[in-house]
Amino acid sequence: MPIYLWAVLVMIILQRLVELVIARSNENWMKQRGGVEKGAAHYKWFVIVHTLFFASLITEVLLRNQQSFSFNYFLFAVFLLTQIGRIWCIATLGRFWNTKIIISPQFDVVKRGPYRYMKHPNYLIVGIELLVIPLLFGAWYTAMVFPMLHVLLLYVRIPIEEKAVYEHN
To answer: Which keywords appear in this protein's UniProt record, sorted alphabetically (predicted)?
Structure first.
């Protein structure tokens, strides 16, 4: 695999690590203002699945040893669009953006930016990323498995989140 794709992969991993730092800061900020975490029991599965995603992606790329790798500009464009959407979600939520479900009765549900059009745009973006990123690297098995795991996680998470928001209002 070309070195520039390894650089893209490292950038994605670094981006996710920075996002975890932001999420932790936002979590602390919200909890200091009365925020309460809901659905904590399932959160570890998000951490496990997303960690395994990168392990699977890297392993599959190394095992495939793709000598005739061909860069796919369409997939890269879709990836860039997901990054724009991801940043839009994070910027719209500001201090309320988090990887956990944290609710506070003193804050209203955000209904602007992408949240004006759908309740959970970030979940859709992550689902697309879990498909597109592996395809961009030629990791077909990772592209098949992890979007399905994401849907299973959302099957648990979205009802918990919806219930927490409903009880909050």
So the answer is: Membrane, Transmembrane, Transmembrane helix
